[in-house]
Automatic annotation (TrEMBL):
Assembly notes: Homodimer; disulfide-linked. Interacts with TXN/thioredoxin through its redox-active site. Interacts with transcriptional repressors ZBTB16, ZBTB32 and HDAC1. Interacts with DDIT4.
Biased segments, Acidic residues type: 360-369
Keywords: Cell cycle, Cytoplasm, Disulfide bond, Isopeptide bond, Phosphoprotein, Transcription, Transcription regulation, Ubl conjugation
Domain Arrestin C-terminal-like: 177-304
Main location: cytoplasm
GO biological process terms on file: nervous system development; protein transport
Protein name: Thioredoxin-interacting protein
GO molecular function annotation: ubiquitin protein ligase binding
Compartments reported by the entry: Cytoplasm
Taxonomic source organism: Sphaeramia orbicularis (orbiculate cardinalfish)
Length: 400
């Protein structure tokens, strides 16, 4: 038999048992196989599989990296189960046939792993690597990455609790006071999942001389820690805006929504990398820095179920009644007025003049008060538009 001395095999790959699976979590069973195929017969001495996972942050200025390990596993595969051994203790791999050597292991229990992540200055990476040793030749290796996503249930009391804050800023023009702007905002809970709508209640006041614009955005903050120093990158993910607010006016959002886009969950438990989310509500002020208010968000994997949230919602209502009691309910409209058909069509005024304001304090010679001439009344032959066509757009309100 002529043995091959080539450096590579026709097939050397790691395959997972369920290639359609997108991620794994703590405690899951991960299994697969290492597949080998040779063009010509060759000798093998050892085949082993290692699984590893670690967080790494690259320090560019010092050209070095920092790592924290979360997973380490090693298994030697039994070549003798499928291949024949020679007198030197090596195994003969015949040509033209694919051999599969199985492996499997269980991921660590909850609390030991961190979700996969890839960012500008660091990553959390998990992979399976196969090492193939051959007599008097270089070791061959191949690897396959797999994703880890740790479950994060937002149906926890602290994540179902509302978040609220307020902030104001004095505006100046050439060091001369020019009034102030303020924001008060609240969201019903802190925990959300992909595709859910965040309902925002907010009040914006503008007493400066400029026209301001209220806006809101979901932001992500990526923090990398190395050598005691941290670097933070902020990314805006989605945004909404409101109407312009002129001087001396205020505006209110009641139930204005912003949808959570497709996001990686909040990254928890990693010493080197943090990924936090926040709802940023702010006022754009021409010629001045923005007034920014941030409410914390936690992006989870287990969506809101509504079970057990009644107590949380009731407590949040009690805590927020005092600060939000002055908000008019734009979503609830008064009952419809009486039908036009109930008005008598022979209605007439008693004279050419009808008193409008009897206590008018103008000209003292006008003893009968302020009058207006009543024009002839003409009633429409058709019914007016339905009351359901009322414009529900919230008007700007004056600041008192």
């Amino acid at each position: 038999m002529v043995l091959s001395s080539v450096q590579k095999l026709k097939l050397f790959a790691v395959r997972l048992s369920d290639p359609s699976r997108s991620f794994y979590s703590s405690g899951d069973k991960l299994s697969g196989s290492v597949q080998l195929e040779a063009d010509q017969p060759c000798r093998l001495s050892r085949l082993c599989v290692t699984a590893a996972g670690c967080a790494r942050v690259q320090h560019r200025k010092k050209n070095r990296s920092h790592e924290v390990e979360y997973l380490k596993y090693e298994e030697e595969l039994r070549l003798e189960e499928q291949l024949e051994a020679d007198s030197d203790g090596c195994f003969l791999l015949p040509a033209g046939k694919v051999f599969s050597f199985q492996f499997g292991f269980e991921l660590p229990p909850p609390g030991r792993l961190v979700s996969s992540y890839k960012g500008k200055f660091g990553s959390v990476r998990y992979y399976i690597r196969a090492l193939l040793q051959r007599p008097s030749q270089q070791v061959l290796q191949c690897e396959r990455e797999f994703e880890v996503e740790e479950p994060l249930d937002i149906n926890q009391p602290d994540l179902l609790a509302p978040a609220a804050a307020s902030k104001h800023k004095k505006v100046t023009c050439m060091f001369i006071p020019d009034g102030q702007v303020s924001i008060s905002a609240q969201i019903e809970r802190k925990g959300f999942c992909e595709g859910e709508d965040i309902s925002i209640n907010a009040k914006f006041e503008n007493t400066c001389s400029r026209i301001v614009v209220p806006k809101a955005a979901i932001i992500a903050k990526h923090s990398y820690v190395a050598d005691g120093h941290s670097k933070v990158l902020q990314q805006k993910l989605s945004a909404v805006r409101g109407n312009h607010i002129i001087s001396g006016m205020c505006d209110m959002w009641q139930g204005k929504t912003i949808r959570v886009p497709k996001l990686k969950p909040t990254l928890l438990g990693c010493d080197l990398i943090k990924v936090d989310y926040a709802l940023m509500i702010y006022l754009h002020i021409p010629g001045s820095e923005k007034l920014i208010l941030e409410l914390p968000l936690v992006i989870g994997t287990v969506p809101f179920s509504g079970v057990g949230s009644r107590t949380s919602s009731m407590s949040s209502q009690v805590g927020s009644q005092s600060s939000w009691a002055s908000f008019p309910s734009f979503s609830s409209f008064p009952s419809a007025p009486p039908s036009y058909s109930n008005i008598h069509r022979d209605l007439r005024v008693d004279g050419p003049r009808t008193p409008l304001l009897n206590d008018y304090d103008g000209d003292e010679e006008e003893e009968d008060g302020l009058f207006m001439t009543a024009p002839p009344m003409h009633y429409p032959s058709t019914s007016p538009p339905a009351y359901s066509q009322v414009d529900r757009e919230s008007p700007a309100l004056p600041v008192f």
